[in-house]
Design goal:
Blueprint lengths: L1 E2 L2 E6 L5 E3 H14 L4 E3 L5 E6 L4 H10 L15 E2 L15 H13 L1 H4 L7 E4 L11 E7 L4 E8 L12 E4 L3 H18 L11 H9 L23 E4 L5 E7 L4 E2 L1 H15 L2 E4 L4 E8 L3 H10 L13 E3 L13 H11 L6 E4 L13 E5 L5 E5 L9 E7 L1 H8 L1
């Protein structure tokens, strides 16, 4: 994709899972062909920025030679199956959805009909983990309930308040994969009949669910079922795994960016911790898994030395900012730089998102506080409010950063 600071190459990592060798290949690609900026996205992928046109093909070949990329080139954009970074390791999960997520990803990658759908199409497979990205809206979502059932819905998220749309139904785990297949096939058929339908939000959700219920045994979901609101801070620090004596160790990158040298050192840290594996989180963080409990503090100190935020109370622990005027032609403000300045004015963590225009590219979810740039120096401040669309309720307008810090305090 083209951007103000050059081409952007997005590298999709299935379920955010990365090997040390893959990470080093990404770092080397950013050094050789980009401007040295690597982003960790809110879909748990990598992005290399600042690529000049003569280097595009060379970078792609470099990444493919490292084993990165899809089995089918046409499937690359559509590989958006979202899971918790603690997939298969989480003692807070209601059910382990590892196999189900793998089935769904294989189907999406392997079916040519799906490849023609919008590259923004997203599928959430939520096992009930405390750090699941369940509050990211999805085209199609499954969320674990009790008794081997999943609630499901379209163009929404699992309900977390009375203002959220109710699930369209419930499905037993034995038929969850069949429900996803039936939903995608029915949606493909709708797009063929009506090309103006691009995303699930463009379709009649109830009509689509009725079509699907004729193919799989859907039952009504409990009207009072609510999914607990996820905690993005749950993937920072030392995190118990469901395997005895093992920990996951997590940290958040500074505003979603790392340097090639940082990523290379992270790969080496993972090698010492568990033989060379880590995961990207949907919160622009990293998680080194399968760490012996005795080694946890050492690995946590290693992440901190690399610049990752490992303190859940730090101002940058929950701060998100888009690329701003340095990287985007639509931007009205230098949001990356402003976010760093704002963090310096705060004393604790605030779930805040700075966006340089109303498109909100950096965050699929609605933060507790959203700052929307109105010009290079001023922001309107919104507070999330269940039942309100967009960013929520406008609380203040035309604030400079110092005023914003006072309001947040």
């Amino acid at each position: 994709m083209s951007s103000k600071d050059g081409g952007i190459c997005r590298i999709k990592m299935p379920f955010g899972q990365v090997s040390s060798s893959q990470a080093k290949a990404v770092a080397d690609g950013a050094r050789r062909y980009g401007n040295g900026q690597i982003e960790l996205t809110n879909r748990a992928n990598f992005q290399i920025r600042g690529i000049t046109p003569p280097d595009e093909d060379a970078l792609i070949q470099h990444l493919l030679d490292a084993g990165l990329g899809p089995k089918d080139a046409q499937a690359d954009d559509i590989r958006n199956v979202m899971v918790s970074a603690t997939l298969g390791l989480d003692s807070t999960a209601i059910v382990d959805v590892s196999d189900l997520a793998a089935q769904i990803l294989a189907f999406v990658e392997g079916d040519e009909r799906i490849h023609a759908l919008s590259p923004k199409l997203s599928i959430l497979v939520d096992g009930g983990e405390v750090g699941s990205p369940a509050d990211h809206p999805s085209d199609l979502w499954l969320s674990a309930m009790a008794d081997g059932l999943f609630a499901f819905g379209y163009a929404s998220r699992p309900p977390m308040s009375d203002q959220d749309p109710a699930p369209l139904g419930a499905i037993h785990a034995d038929h969850a994969f069949d429900l996803v297949v039936a939903s995608l096939e029915a949606f493909v058929a709708l797009t063929l009949k009506n090309p103006s339908i691009k995303r699930f939000r463009d379709a009649d959700a109830l009509a689509l669910a009725a079509l699907v219920s004729g193919r799989v045994p859907v039952s009504p979901a409990p009207k009072d079922w609510r999914r607990a609101r996820p905690d993005r801070l749950a993937q920072i620090g030392l995190i118990p795994q469901n395997q005895a004596c093992n920990l996951a160790v997590g940290g958040v990158s500074v505003l979603g960016r790392v340097t090639p040298d940082c990523l290379t050192s992270l790969a080496d840290l993972a090698l010492t911790a568990n033989g060379g594996a880590f995961r990207l989180t949907p919160w622009s963080g990293v998680l080194i898994t399968d760490v012996a409990a005795a080694d946890g503090p050492k690995i946590l100190a290693g992440l901190m030395a690399l610049g990752f935020t490992v303190d859940r109370d730090a101002p940058l622990a929950q701060m998100v900012a888009c690329s701003g005027t340095s990287g985007c032609a639509s931007a009205l403000a230098p949001t990356k730089e402003d976010a760093l300045r704002l963090a310096g004015l705060l004393t604790g963590a605030v779930d805040v998102h700075l966006t340089a225009c109303p498109k909100s590219c950096a965050s699929a979810r609605v933060a507790d506080v959203t700052l929307v740039a109105v010009d290079a120096d001023h922001y309107d401040l919104y507070r999330r409010q269940d039942g309100l669309d967009g960013f929520g309720q406008k609380h203040n307008q035309g604030l400079i950063l110092a005023q914003t810090a006072e309001v947040l305090a």
